[in-house]
Amino acid sequence: MSVRVLGPLEVWRGDRAESLGGVKQRALLAHLALHANTGVSLNQLVEALWPVSRPRSVVSNVRTYVWRLRQVLDDHLRTHGTGYVLAVSPQELDALLFDELVADARRRPDAALELLRQAESLWRGRPLEDLPDHDAWTPAIARLEEARLAATEHRLALQVERGDSAAAIPQLRALLAAHPYRESVCGQLVIALRQDNRRAEALQVYADMRARLADELGLEPGPALRDAQLAVLRGEPASAPIRQLPPSVSDFCGRAGGTEALVRALRRGSVSAPVAGVTGPPGVGKSTLAIRVAHLVGDHFPDGQLYVDLGGTAEQPRDAGDVLTELLHALGITGAGLPSQLTARAALYRSRLAGRRVLVVLDDAASVSQVVPLLPGDAGCAVLVTSRRRLSELPGALQVELRPFEPEEAAELLASIAGEDRVSAQPDEAAAIALACGHLPLAIRVAGARLAGRSGWSMQVLRERLVDESTRLRELSSGELAVRASFDLSIRQLPEQEFRAFVRLALPGPHDFPGWVVDTLLDEPGSEHLLDGLVDAGLLESCGADGIGQPRYRLHDLLRCHALELARSLPDRLSTVERMLRAWLWLAVTAARRLPVTFGTTIADVDRVAAPEHLLAEPVAWFEAERRTLCGAVDIAAAAGFDELAWQLAAACVPFFDLHSHYEDWARTHARALPCVRTAGNRAGEAVLLRGIAQVHIYRDEFAEAERDMLAARELYRAVGDERGQGTAIAGVGVIHRLRAEYERSMACYTEALRLLESAGDLHSVAHVRASIGAVHGALGSVEQAREWLTGARQLAADLGDTHREALVLVRLATLHRSTGEHEAELVSARRAVTILMDLTDERCTAFAQVELAEALISNGHPQAAHDLVEQALETYRRTGNREGEPAALRTLARAAGALDQLLLPYFQPR
C-alpha cells in the first residue's frame, strides 16, 4: 500500500488506485497522513474537518469515515486513545520517504545528487492540491514545500559544484522567478553563470537582485551573495584556504539528528559568529561527530577551517594564550608580530579573521573560560566546540548533547568494523555485543577492532567475554583504544565528594534512580547538588523528571561497571547497600499501606528511616515512578544475601502490582527473592513468597501450580505458627476449587479459612472470605444464604472503611440480583462498584466489575453500552495477561452482540 500526499491525495495498492470516497472522508485521511505515526484526537479531527460549523452527528460521521477508510487501509489506520493514528513506514507514505531521502543525502555526500533526484521525483504538484484548503494543514504543507525548495537548491548546488552548470542554469532561473527574494538561489545562479564563463550575465543577475531588494524591501544583499559577486569581479580564485581539519572517519554512522542541528546552526546568519557545542560522556563520539560536521559545512567557509585540541581531559588543560599563539601562526603571524598579552593576542586573532569566512573547531574544551578568548568576532566565521563538560555558559551557543547509539546505529558501526558478513550471519550475537558495550561508540569500535583482528573468533566468543561486568572493561581494549582509559581521564578530574558519590551510585543497579538516593548512599543529607557536577562532567545522565516530578538519573552501563570496580574496595560497601535498601523498603511499606488492602498480602512492620516521605502524597504515582527501581532493589537484596529485606521488598510491592496488573513484576520479584530466603532458612519469608506466586498462577489460570504453591505456603505458615497466613493460604485453595466449579470443596476451604482469620483478628480478610462464601452459596442456588453472607460482608467492609473490598462485594451482589431478576438493584450495585474501583485505579478489578455492569446493562435493555464496556474489559485482560476473567467477558460480549443482532457483521469476531 502507498499513500501519496505530494500532489493530489491518492492511495495505491500495487498498480491500482483505491477509491477514497467523498471530500470529508478524503480530508480525514489527509489530516492523518500529514500527522503520520502521531495520535490525532477525535476533537482535533472534528476541528480540522468542520472549522466553522458542524453537524450534530459529527462524532458518528468521523467514525463512519474511519470505518470506511479501514476497508482501504487495513490495520494502518488504528485507534489511539480517543482518536486515531495512521501508522505507516516511509515506503508507504511519500512525504515520509521524501524526508528520509533528503536526510540520507545529507549523510551521504557521495550519493547525495541521486538521492535528491529521487526525492524530487516523488512530487506530483502542490500537497493535497485536489482538496479544499484547511487552516489546520497550513504549517505541515508549508514545511513540506520549504523542504522541497531546500532539496531542489541543494541538488542544483551539487550540480554546479560538479561542473554541470549548463544544465543547472535554466532551472535556477526558473526557481529565482518563482522565489524572487531568495538570495541563496540568486547566489547559486551567479556562481553557475560565472562557472559557465557568462560573467556579464552573472553580474546582471546580481544587479537585478540588489535593485529588487533595495526598491521593494529596503535591504542590501547578504554576505554570501556579495561574495559571489566579488568572485565574478575578481575573475580569479581566492588564495589557498586554511585546511587544518583531521580526516573524517570512513565508517561514520548514525547521529542524523545531531548532524542536521549542527550543520543548520553553523550555517545560520547572525550578527556574531555562530557557536555550536557537542557535549556528552566519554567515548560517545563527540570529536568524531564534530569533525564530520566540519567537513560537511566546508563549502560554507571558503577561507578554511582552523582546528586545535584544547587538552581539556589532560592533567593540565592548554592555556588560552598558548592556543592563540598556535592559531595566529596558522594565520601568518609569527615572531615579533605576536603580542605578549592574552587580550592583545585575542584582539589580533579576531582582526585577522574579520571579513573572512572561517570555521574554528575547538576540540576537548575544559571550560568556558578556556573557550571565550578563542571566539571570532566576525559574523562570517563560526565555532564548533567539543567538551565532556556541559558548557551552558557559552554565550548564544547551540548545545548538542550526545547519548549512546540506538541499537540499529550500534549494529551498523560494528558491521562496518568487524565485517558485514560476520554481523549479518549472527545478528543476535552482534546485538548482544552492542548491548554489553552499552551502545557506546568507543566501546563498539574497540569490540569491532578485536573481532576484526581475530578472524578465528565467532561473535559468540566475544559476547561471552563481555557478559561478566567485573571483567568487561578489561575486554574492551584493543591497541591504543581502551574504554577504561577514556573513563579515567574524566574521573580523575572530579572533586573528592563528587568522586565518592560517583563510586556509590553504582550500587543501586542498572536502573535509573531518584536524586534523593545520593543522600542515603553517602549518609549525608543535602548531597543532591553533587549530582549536578557529575551530570556536567558527562559521567551521569539526567533522565528528566518522573511522574511525581522528582529528577531521575542513571549511570551508563560501562561507567557503572567502572564505578563498581572502584566500589569493591569500599570498607562500608555492604552497610551502604543495606542502608539504601532499608530506605526503599520503608518508603514502599508506607506507600503500600495507603493503597487498597490486597487479600493475602503480608506487609512487614519496619522501623522508620531517613527518606523523603513527602514523595508518597500519591502512592500509586510513586510506585509507578519507582517500579523498575524497586524490582531492582529486590535483586540487589537477594544477591547480597539480605533475605528479610528481599522478601519484605517483594511483598510490599504486591498491593501496587495487584492494583495495576503487573503480574510479570510480581512473579519475577518473588521468584528472585525465593532462593535467598530458602538458603537462609527463612520459612516465614518463604511462605509469603509462595503465597504471592500462587496468586499470580491463579490470575493466569494455572490452577495446578497455584494449588501446589498455596498448600506449600500453608504448611510453612503452620510451621511458624502464623494463623493469618494459614487462613489466606487455605482461602486461596478455596478460590482454585471455586474456579474449577468444585463448590463443596471450595466451601470447606473458605469455612476453615474464616475460622483461622477470625482467630487472627484480620477483619479485612474476614470480609473477603465472607463474600467468597456468599458467592459459593449463590453458585449452589442458595439465594437467601448468599444474600445474608454478602450483605454481612459488605457491612463489615463499610465499617472498616475498606471501599475496595466493599466494591468487590457489590459485584457479587449484582450477580445475585441478576439471578433473582432484581435488575434495577443489579444495575445500581454494578455501577457503584465500577465507580469505586475506577477511582482506586484498580485495572484488574475494574475490568471484573465492568463485565458485571455489562450484564446489568443487558438485563436493563442497553446492549450497545454493554458491548462497549466488555470490549474495554477484554482489552485490560489481554494487555495484562489475566486469563482468569477473559472467558466470562467473552460470554458477556456474545450476549451483548446477540442482543444487538450483530453476530453476522464482519467486524464482530469474538476471540
From TrEMBL:
Name of the protein described by the UniProt record: SARP family transcriptional regulator
Organism taxonomic ancestry: Bacteria, Bacillati, Actinomycetota, Actinomycetes, Pseudonocardiales
UniProt KW keywords: DNA-binding, Repeat, Transcription, Transcription regulation
Known DNA-binding region: 1-88
InterPro entries xrefs: AAA+_ATPase, AfsR-DnrI-RedD_regulator, Apaf_helical, BTAD, NB-ARC, OmpR/PhoB-type_DNA-bd, P-loop_NTPase, Sig_transdc_resp-reg_C-effctor
UniProt-listed SUPFAM superfamilies: C-terminal effector domain of the bipartite response regulators, P-loop containing nucleoside triphosphate hydrolases, TPR-like
PROSITE patterns tied to this protein: OMPR_PHOB
Pfam families linked: BTAD (PF03704), NB-ARC (PF00931)
The keyword Plastid appears for this protein: no
Protein family (similarity comment): Belongs to the AfsR/DnrI/RedD regulatory family.
All copies of domain OmpR/PhoB-type, residue ranges: 1-88
Annotated signal peptide: none
Keyword Repeat tagged: yes
